[in-house]
Amino acid sequence: MPSTAARVVLVTGVSRLIGARVATALQADPGIERVIGVDTVPPTAPLGRTEFVRVDVRRPSIAKVIASARVDTVIHLNLVTSPSAPRSKVKEVNVIGTMQLLAACQRSPDVRKLVVRSSAAVYGSSPMDPAVFTEEDEPVEPPTSGYAKDAVEVEGYVRGLQRRRSDLVVSVLRFANLLGPGVDSPLTRYLRMPVVPTVLGFDPRLQFLHEDDGTEVLRRMTVEDHPGCYNVAGDGVMLLSQVLRRAGRSQLPLPSRSMSVVGDLGRRFAGMSGFSPELLRWLTYGRVVDTGRLVSELSWRPKYGTEAALADFVSSQGLGPGMPLQLIDRLTDALHRG
User: Fold this and answer.
1) Does domain 8-179+208-234+288-305 have CATH number 1.10.10.10?
2) Of 41, 152, 177, 208, which one has the greatest count of Cβ atoms within 10 A?
3) Distance CA 331, CA 195 (A)
4) What three-state secondary structure class fits 282?
């Protein structure tokens, strides 16, 4: 396949951590003439020579931005993973927004490349899962709600675009859970809880991806041609119990039915939005993906393994020893009274 060098790049979700970091990395490339970042809210940090356009990808106006700037490469990072808005609005952003964006890409004669950040959550989490998911594996129990279901739908629409525009170079990246100093997500809020609830009788296997490596793989997919679907995660696997010990967190094993009550307490202690069904399943059964295809295709592997990504997060957050036993007792009493 001939090279499709990126010259005018559009980055969605540019006001969020990864969007801003990818835009900053791309604008340093001398081969890229323009980087245009779009979002519904202005960025809080300077974006250098990235041009910010306030636009909602759910609206037809995104097509005007792509057409007027003659965008040739689209990096779609606008999927909402930690909703603070009603579920219906989040689904609109994730699914309807993607549909509108892909329709604009299909109509544009200038667009030649599409890079989509998806999620390993498309594999779901189940007691019957394989030890390791490859890109060809289908979920044993497909996600039925939340962001994971949105990601499945998004990938379906991307495949539809590929059928209609076979000339496009399309890369889909299934990210493991992000960690790093700048990441704010349901996972990082969970790890910052003063006492961390776990599902009694389960110790899931987990993988993480450092924010630096997430940025770098998106940059590489933009400036190089690597069509296909790829799992993206740091090397290595950790048990949840190991993660919590490294983070200096005290565990509170609970029956799964009690976790929703703890999620309500988490709103008070850690600013969480509760435990979504997909997060609860991940904390029960875990998930591990194979990254061999990515490593082989790019001749590159993430700088941070799973343990190193956790260590950097722990260090940046100043997480210390576990909470005193008295606090655990008070929380346990509160759960029993609830």
Assistant:
1) no
2) 208
3) 8
4) helix
Cα 109 → chain centroid? 30
DSSP H helices, the chain, are 17-27, 61-69, 87-91, 97-107, 146-164, 186-191, 211-223, 240-246, 259-270, 277-285, 292-298, 306-317, 325-337
Query: What is the distance between the alpha carbons of residues 226 and 232, in angstroms, rounded to a whole number?
Result: 14
Tokens matching residue 109: 């004669």
Compute how many other C-beta atoms are within 10 angstroms of the C-beta atom of residue 267.
12
Identify the bridge partners of residue 232 per DSSP, sorted by sequence position: 175
Both tokens of 135, joined, read 């890109």
Average pLDDT over residues 82-94: 74
pTM reported for the whole predicted model: 0.91
Cα(first)–Cα(last) distance of the chain, in Å? 61
- Read off the pLDDT of each residue in 62-77 and give the average, rounded to a whole number: 97
Per-residue CA distances from 255 to 241, 252, 260 (Å): 16, 10, 10
pLDDT the model gives residue 323: 45
- Residues facing residue 51 across a β-bridge: 36
Q: Which two tokens stand for residue 333?
A: 């009493």
